[in-house]
Design goal:
0% strand; 75 residues
Length: 75
């Protein structure tokens, strides 16, 4: 059985980043990210997506895996 909560599709990318930041002790749980941390997160998403642009999305050959990363994790 698939765990729908484990799938980031449709979730707020900044909320995902905030959850990771809280887990790592960068912010307190429930706090919002400041703009510098949001920018840092988005830069990481962009870099990861750029690496993944070399691979075609098996679900839709018109897109790359990088496109999927951007769609799911970019603000």
């Amino acid at each position: 059985m698939e765990n729908e909560d484990a799938d980031p599709v449709g979730k707020d990318p900044v909320a995902i980043a905030a959850a990771h930041a809280a887990r790592l002790g960068l912010i307190k749980e429930g706090d919002k990210l400041d703009q510098m941390l949001v920018d840092f997160w988005m830069a990481g998403v962009d870099e990861s997506a750029a690496v993944a642009d070399r691979f075609v999305d098996p679900q839709c050959t018109e897109h790359t895996v990088g496109d999927v990363i951007r769609a799911e994790l970019h603000e």
